[in-house]
Specification:
With 92 residues, the chain is mainly α. The chain is built from 3 helices and no strands.
Length: 92
Amino acid sequence: MNDRGSVRPTLGIPPRPELSVPVLSKRTATPAEPSGISEAEGKLVAYRQVVESRDELIREASAQGVSEARIAKLTGHSRNTVRSILGSAASP
């Protein structure tokens, strides 16, 4: 019994299906064009494309000798964000 007088369930009891958390599927491919999708989804696709081009610009600037601190200042992103982009492999 616990402090409230109730008995805790043992580990041998199977979980109740209605309380289980669904497993998230793996990332799906992003459509090349926002055709046949909602306006909000189209905006998200456009945003992803901007982020990918941003990452390319940051990598290019670093390759040309611009420091992480200077890139962060010019882009308005944190140094941790810049460092993360530079530390990651080429665009996913």
